[in-house]
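Most newcomers find our protein records easier to grasp once they have seen one. A learned vocabulary of local backbone shapes supplies the integers on the structure line. An example says more than a description, so a record of this kind follows:
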Amino acid sequence: MNLKRWFIAFGLQGASLSALTLVMSLFTITGLKGNVKNASIVVALYSLGNLLGAIISGAMLDRIKNLSPIIFTSLFSASIVSILMPFSYSIFFYYILSILLGLSVSVIGPSITLFLSNRLPAISYRKNINALNLLNSIGATSGTFIGGILLTIFYFLNEATRMTMIFVFSSFVFAIASILISTTGETLTETIKRKISTEKDYLKGLYLDDFPKGMFSSFNLKGLGLKVDLLMLAVLIAFFGANMLFAIFSIYLQQYLKIGPQVIFIVYGVNSIAGNIGFYLTKFAMENFKDFKIIRAVLFARFIAILLIILVGLLKSRGISIWATYISFIIIGFTWPFFYIPVTIQATNLTSPENRGKILGIFNASINLAVITASFVSGAVALKFGYLTSFLVGAILLVVSERVFTKAISVETAKVD
């Protein structure tokens, strides 16, 4: 198995997905004439697909030896779904494709993370998981800027048509990534036989003889300890709070601050660059500070940044509001790796190697459950009470999450004592 090829494919997936997930919300408004609630439902259903994928992957990852055919299938499916989305002239069909897209891409990250955690020593694993996420983040940055470029250079076309080109770009990049995963030097016949064999292992891994109880039993927290319970609860609350902003932020820029889609892509691109810098600096932070201290600092910084967005959003000075909002959003992007990497490592360290697939499944299910719920709630709150109210709820939940993380730390300390 070529590890380098996995890294590159994951980077390409980041490029494709970053442009695609951003344009998905905007296209709901521009191409399908929906509102902020419709756009937030698209995000929620995409995350629902992620959650379903997390449930499936949590049940199967620990039982499949060869993961590359599974990743190939996911990437290729995402390519097909991406090309169909802009030609959905019904919001309902668009909703269905959003679920399928989330389901298609959900297994890739956990598969590669599990591959590294099971085959590398602790020191090397921390280094490689950081490099993997950095490469994905660089890909995400590139994809976002390419999306902005496509919107700019084809200015003579209407917005919906320009956004369609981004869907096509994402589909093409997903296809390239799938080819990288599937290219192993074997003949076509050998490839087909291998994929059929792996699919049999996959079906066995889903406990079809005990469906659906067997599948969902992989997500039973019972017996894993109070620290696991608290950490997963804290993760759920933190992602819920953050996604009260993220789920509708692009629509907030477009509808509330009257920002054009080209500029929105640039703002998200700079946000992604800030995240890349954060990934580079995360390893130094983790060498000098405990993971939980970094996590708590991030939650506090994000709380302040969201409060600033709310305060400037109330100002009548549009110029100040716009630039202060940009800066706050960039700060939020910078803090992302300082949160995600320590939390991921803590999650994989909570149990024995043979149960890490289960923990990763629970971890990703918690994240996606939070994103799904927050997306539905944020759109409804924004439509009825305004965008800033939705952001305020998110900020408050970040504080609650910090308190739960602190409780998890106290549990760990009590055990040591």
About this structure: The CA atoms of residues 228 and 350 lie 7 Å apart. Confidence is low (pLDDT under 50) at residues 185-192, 201-219.
